[in-house]
Amino acid sequence: MQDHITGTHPLEQFIHCPKCGGAFVVNNWKSKRCTACGFKYYFNPSSATVALVTDGLGGLLVSTRANEPAKGTLDLPGGFVDMDETAEEGVAREVMEETSLRVTEARYLFSLPNIYVYSGFTVHTLDMFFRCRVEDLSPLEAHDDVAALRFIPFDEINPDDFGLQSIRRGLELIKAKGLLR
User: Fold this and answer.
1) Are strands 40-42 and 74-75 parallel, antiparallel or unpaired?
2) Is residue 176 over pLDDT 70?
3) Fewer Cβ atoms within 10 Å of its own Cβ: the N or the C terminal residue of the chain?
4) Long-range interactions of 110-115: CB distance < 8 A, separation 24+
5) What are the counts of helices (DSSP H) followed by strands (DSSP E) for the chain?
């Protein structure tokens, strides 16, 4: 398995055992093993969420990314799920942190694999898309890693305007299947 961005296996980033510091060698296509203590590390994706928040008038809430990767491009609210948090709790927290909106319902739609490069480190993610209902749209305000927020009529959404591959693919799937109708 090779990372399609860097062209290397994702485990090549790991040279030393995180448990004892010994030499890490390839165990199989998805794991490494320590030659000193025998610890095996399996490379699994990190959980991430994507929120689809509508305004009830046919508009989808989109953000402008304030940071790299893809700074300045369109995005959807969401982010990494924290430890000891469900995906539903994670998407609600991310929406609150980025928009000040309180999610009252998060309905899972589908997931897509993604590669997210953060600080030069390749993170494989599983991006889970949720249709989210919010309590009230009036507190809407950009925070955290969001430069701006706005609603765009869903019929005017162009997936190519979004900077992250999984968001583009997700929007294409949503449009093809009519998931926001």
Assistant:
1) unpaired
2) yes
3) C
4) 110/170, 110/173, 112/166, 112/169, 112/170, 112/173, 113/45, 113/166, 114/48, 114/164, 114/165, 114/166, 115/3, 115/4, 115/5, 115/165
5) 2, 10
